[in-house]
Write a structure and sequence with these properties.
Elements: H1 3-6, E1 11-12, H2 19-25, H3 28-33, E2 34-35, H4 43-57, H5 63-77, H6 107-130, H7 135-138, E3 141-146, H8 156-162, E4 174-176, H9 180-185, E5 208-213, H10 215-221, H11 231-236, E6 255-256, H12 262-270, E7 274-276, E8 279-281, H13 286-305
Parallel strand pairs: 1-2
Antiparallel strand pairs: 3-4, 3-5, 6-8, 7-8
Amino acid sequence: MTAAATAELRDVLPTWLGSQGIRDGIAAELRARAFFVSRCGVADILSLVKDLATRMAAGDMDMASARVTLLQAIRAIGYTPAGGFPGTPEGAVPPAVEGTLQDLTSKRRLDLILNTQLDLTKGRGQQLRGLRPGRLEQFPAYELVRLGARAVPRNWHARWTIAGGQAVSGGRLIALKGDPVWGELGGSGNFDDALDVDFPPFAFNSGMGWVEVSAEKCRALGVTGPDGETVDEWLAKSHPLTVGRQDAAMPPPQISMTGIDPALQNALRQLGVDIVDGVAVPQGGADALRARLAARAAARAARAAARISAPATLSAWEKGGVL
């Protein structure tokens, strides 16, 4: 699957919520499948961003052209930093200082939006290609590497430890494809700036990416799975969520019910919608969701118990960045 084609797997999700509100109010499973920009509840703008990211991923447009196109569209709708978009619900979006990261028309914000969506599209495409039969056996692991320089780089070795990973020879950050460490590395439950994905860039403006590692190199370095499996033992396992299903459609949606009127929640239940831990799922999906949440909690607890304490140098982004 090409990087451009992966953008089609995500549907636009207009929202006036900020970064923290999105994490608190929209289920992680939905965020992983959605195409959204914080403080942007205009579907036309989101659709344009998605189209621009797709064209850039395909090599049909450069960043400068995409930035100008998006800026013109935002201004044409009537956006202003102080007032936001016309029709924005009163109090939903705080006024932005012109030229700052909160200003949708600033170069910093436009670049962050476009770069984040482009990196997500490329990262997902790389993940799907790497899970194809044959490719997986030849290159069963990824190494986390820095692809772009940052003025204040985040401490990814510390993050790796927090996510439950173990560095191999020379401090290299290598894990097998499908290892839960990748999801933990991109989980907002662990890091405030995380994107809730299990592929690069993992966090806003991270500059991090993947390089595939061969099976031969994995064996030489002693790379193992989350339960100590050797490369060959890991490959012999059945991984239905990754191997052979990389082009499958996204699973049925789960919608966050956080902050929704209890009366409406009761009405939804009467219509056959199940609500589990504040998440609405299609009828019949409650048991599967409970099992997945329980397994995820148990795995996270087990990894947390085995963590090696490591100091983390927090950058400004790690103290509360915004998209």
